[in-house]
Amino acid sequence: MTWYDLTHPFESGMPVPDWPGEKRQEFELVTYRVSVNSGTQNNLHMNLHCGTHVDAPSHYAKNGRSIDQMPFDYLVGHTIIIDVKKQALSRVELEDVKRYDDSIRGKKMVFLRTGWETHWKTKKYESEYPFLAPELGEYFVEKKVHAIGLDTPGPDAPIRSGQRKGDPLHIKLLSNDVMIIENLANLERLVGKDVFVYAYPLIIKGATGSPLRVIATDEM
After folding, report:
1. Does any domain span residue 169?
2. What's the CATH number where 92 sits?
3. Closest Cα partner for 108 from 84, 144, 136, 81?
4. Average pLDDT, the chain
5. Is residue 110 part of a domain?
6. Domain that holds residue 89
7. What is the pLDDT of residues 63-107, one digit of tens each?
8. CA distances for 194 relative to 9, 82, 200, angstroms
9. Is 99 left (phi over 0), alpha (psi -120 to 50) or beta?
10. Residue 136 and residue 39: Cα distance in Å, rounded?
11. Is a pLDDT exceeding 80 seen at residue 24?
12. For position 220, what pLDDT does the model report?
């Protein structure tokens, strides 16, 4: 059986939420030695919406479920990776996705490969990524998928781009329990394949999201 890790490492210098006017939420891992024994410990400071992570419905949906309220196997199942490669600040249109209708039908999750992960750890990655047309929100709701996955920071346009018109995709998807997995890695080798994905969030009471370890296999 062949396994594929679709997760970026969590480490200092990785992209973090780019919200103008808000304090930057840098990833920080502090190592120290415990004074009462010989063990080494770590303290971790991070925003739950950085790195490879999932948005829970409560991130945008009024009365939406928090991450600990979602079924443990919600993000486990047959998944299709589709190629919608785009340039900076380009829009993934409904037509780009609908041509994969037959492959998407019956899948638990759909991962969209834009190719943007090549800009990981750059300012460009955070503020110039491709984004989805609003119509795709309704499309994925109609397909009854549990989640969509992206190799970008999110489905709506970057805030600094001037093209952001609210948060239509976050709102539409999360209000219908279609979760959003952001900052995926290593999708290129799996484009066009039907794979089985295991993605388990942490059980964090009341949280609007969680880091993920996303693993796929093409042998089922």
Report:
1. yes
2. 3.50.30.50
3. 144
4. 95
5. yes
6. 48-217
7. 999 999 999 999 999 999 999 999 999 999 999 999 999 999 999
8. 24, 10, 19
9. alpha
10. 50
11. no
12. 62
In the chain, the largest separation of any two C-alpha atoms, in whole Å, equals 62
Radius of gyration of the chain (CA): 17
Q: Quick check: pTM over 0.85? A: yes
Q: At what angle do helices 168-175 and 135-142 cross, to 10 degrees?
A: 20
What is the arithmetic mean of pLDDT over 18-37? 88
182 with 55: CB under 8 angstroms?
Answer: yes
Residue whose tokens read 């943007």: 116
pLDDT tens by residue, 150-159: 999 999 999 9
| Residue 115 buriedness (CB in 10 A; 0-12 / 13-18 / 19+) | middle
The total number of structural domains that make up the chain:
1
Whether 157 is in a domain gets the answer: yes
Q: By CB neighbour count within 10 A (0-12 exposed, 13-18 middle, 19+ buried), where does 27 fall?
A: middle
Beta bridge partners of 4: 216
Q: Is 180 inside a domain boundary?
A: yes
Q: Which two tokens stand for residue 171?
A: 């709102």
